[in-house]
Amino acid sequence: MGSVLLPTLRRKREVDAAIRDTLDKVLVLRFGRAADAACLHLDDILAKSSWDISKFTTVALVDMDSEEMQVYVDYFDITLVPATIFFFNAHHMKMDSGIVPVKLSDGEELDGPIFR
Amino acid sequence: MPPKRETPTPAAVFEYCELCRRNHNQGRRHRYFPAHRTALAAALSRFRSKLSDLRRALRHPSSGPRSSLWCPFCSVDLVDLDSRFACSNAIYHLTSQDHLNGVKAFLRKHGGQMDQVESYRISDDELAKWEKCCESLSTEPEMLSEGLIGPTPGLLKDIRNKSTSKNLDNFAESYIPYSSNTESCVVMPLQSPTNGAYYPNSTACHGSSTFGSIPYSPSCEIFGVPIKHCGLIPSHEQQIMLGTDLLHSVDTKMKGAQSAILGNEPNSSVSCVVHAQQKISDGNNGQGLKANVHTGAPPPWLEASEHDQENAPLRGYALPSSRKGKSGKLNPKRVGAAWAERRRAEMEMEKRGEPVPETSDSSWLPNFGSVWQSGTRKESRKEFEKNHKPHDEKSNKLPLEIKPYISKRMRVGSRASRMIFGGMPNKCNKRGVFLSKKSRPANSGMLVGAFNYYVSVHLLLLIRDGSITSRGNMEQGYVLKYNYS
C-alpha cells in the first residue's frame, strides 16, 4: 500500500505513537485505502515530496479499512477519501483548504491547502 | 707572427660573500652584480635604522633595557653587559677607530660609497655629549624614588625606562584602596544561557507567587525539564510549567483554581490545562456516534492510559522526529511547545530505562480544535461538554431493535410526507390515495427531486385506518405491504 518510503499505520497504538512522538515536526496522516485510485495518486505525490520536506514534516499513511482506525475516522468525521490530517506536537492543526494550485518539482499539480 | 697566446687565466678562486651568503668565483666583479648591490643596500639600510635608534639614545641617555647591536662592518655583536645606560657599549664601539677601519674595509670590499663612512659611525662630539648626559643622570636618581603621586612627565616619554616602571609599581602599591573594592565589583560569567531574557527568579517554584492560591506541585521536576533552556519570558515560562504541572496533578477539585489561569493567559498551552480538567474516561466513543473532532471530543490517541505500556515497545515505530538544529532555536511560542518539551523528557527517561510516570491520564486532553466550528478551543470544549453527556446516556442503551425499513412515506402521519415532498399540496383522490406523478415539479425540494429521480411509475398509496398498503415498482427497490392489526 502506498509507497515503500512512507510507513503505513494500521493499528491505533501505532497512530498514537506517531502523533505523540513526532515532536517539533508537522505530521501528515493520509487516511485512505490501497484500492482507491485517488489514494494511490496522492500516495505517490506524498512519497515524492516526503524527502524534500523531511526536515520539518513527517508523512505517514493510515489504512481506513482497519477496524482500529474507525475511531479516528469517526473522530475526524472523514467522509472523503483520501483525507489528510495535520498534526504538530500532538495538536490537531486546523486547515483551510483553498484551491491554490501547487506545482510540485516533478511538474504535477496539486490543490494546495492553506495553513491557518 | 706567432699567435698571441692568451695568458691562461688563473684558476678562479672561490670566495664567500657575506652579504649574498654564497660562494662565488667572480672575483672583484662580484661587487658590481645587481644581486650583490641589492644585498649591500639592504644591509646598510638596516644598520642605518639601528644607528638612528642609537643616536636617539645618545640624545636621551637612559638606563633602559639592555639591547644588542650587530656591527656588520666589524662582525661584532655589541651587547650591553655592565653598562648602566643603554647602548653604551655600542656607542663606544661606534666611536672607536677600529670601527672606522672596519667600515672602510667593508665598503672597499663590497663596493660601497666611501663618502658615507661618517654616517656609519658616531663622532667624538656626540660621544662627549652623551657622556655628559650620563653623568648628569647619575646624580639625579635619588629624586625619583621619593614616592611621587604621579609619574614625572619625563619618565613617561620612554615607557621602556626601567626606573619609570619601578616607580609606577610603587605608585600602584601605594594606592591599594582601590583594589579592595574589586571583589564587590567582580562580575561572574553567566552560569546559564538567558537568551536575552532576564530572570530574577527563574525557577518554577516561584510560580505560586504569581498565581495566588493556586497550589504548586513539584511533579514537574520529575521530568527534568530545565527551565533555563526554555528561553521564555518568566511569566510565560512559569505559566507553561504550571500548566504542564497541572496536567499531571489535576483534580476536579482544582477546577476553580485553574479557572483563574484561563482569564490571564489565552495561550493555547493553557487551554491544554483546561482540557485536562475533563473526565474523559469514557472518551472512547468508538461506536460511530457524534463524538468527533467537530464536537470537540477527545482525540483517540490520547485516551486510555493502559495503552501507554503497549506503546512502549512501539517507540521504535514512532516516526523519527529530528530536532530543528538545536532546541534552543525553536520558537518557544510554537504550538504545543510545552507538550514537546515534556514528551522529549519522557522519551529520554524511557531511553535511560527509568520508569516514566503515566502522562496520559484518562482526563488528559490534547489541544484539539473543532474543524468545522469557528471560535476558540475553549468554546469547542464547552460544546463538547454539552454534547458529551447525552452521548454517555445513549451509549449505555441497548442497541436498537432491528426493524424492517419503513420509508418516510409509509410512516404513520402525513407530517413526514409533507416535509419530504415540500410545500406542494398533496394530490389525493377521494379515497385518500396519494399519487406521485412525474409531473411534480423538480424544485419542490432536494429530497423530492431525488425521489422523483427514482420514481418512474405511480405509487398507489392507500391510507386506511391503521393500515397502509402500497404498491410500487420493483425498480425502486422496495415493495412494502404493511398491515396494522
Tell me the radius of gyration of chain B: 53 Å
- Integer-rounded radius of gyration of chain A: 13 Å
Query: What is the ordering of alpha helices and beta strands of chain B?
Result: EEHEEHHHHHHHHHHHHHHHEHEEE
Helix content of chain B: 25-40%
Q: How would you state the average pLDDT of chain B, rounded?
A: 62
> What structural class do you assign from the helix and strand content of chain B?
mainly alpha
* Poorly predicted segments of chain A: none
Q: What is the overall number of helices of chain A?
A: 3
- Give the overall shape of chain A, derived from the CA principal axes: globular
How much of the sequence lies in strands of chain B comes to 5-15%
How many beta-strand elements of chain B?
8
Oligomer: heterodimer
Give the fraction of residues assigned to helices of chain A.
Answer: 25-40%
- Number of DSSP E strands of chain A: 7
Protein name (chain A): Thioredoxin-like protein 4B
Organism (chain A): Zizania palustris (Northern wild rice)
InterPro entries (chain A): Dim1 (IPR004123)
Biased composition (Basic and acidic residues) (chain B): 340-355, 376-395
Short description:
Chain B: Pfam families: CCDC84. The complex is a heterodimer of chains A (116) and B (485). Chain A contains three helices and seven strands.
Comma- or semicolon-separated keywords:
heterodimer, A: alpha/beta, two-stranded antiparallel sheet, 7 strands, 27% helix, globular, B: mainly alpha, four-stranded antiparallel sheet, 8 strands, rod-shaped, disordered C terminus
Task: Explain how this protein is built.
The complex is a heterodimer of chains A (116) and B (485). Chain A is built from 3 helices and 7 strands; from the N terminus they run βαβαβαββββ. Chain A is an alpha/beta fold and 116 residues long. Chain A is globular and about 35 Å long. In chain A, strands 1-3-2-4-5 form a 5-stranded mixed beta sheet. The model of chain A has no long low-confidence stretch (mean pLDDT 82). Helix content of chain A is 27%, strand content 34%. By secondary structure, chain B is mainly alpha-helical. The longest helix of chain B is centred in the N-terminal third of the chain and has 26 residues, at 34-59. The termini of chain B are far apart. Chains A and B meet through helix 1, helix 3 and strand 5 of A and helix 13 and helix 14 of B. Chain B: Residues 359-375 have a biased composition (Polar residues). Chain B: InterPro entries: CCDC84-like (IPR028015). Chain B: Pfam families: CCDC84.
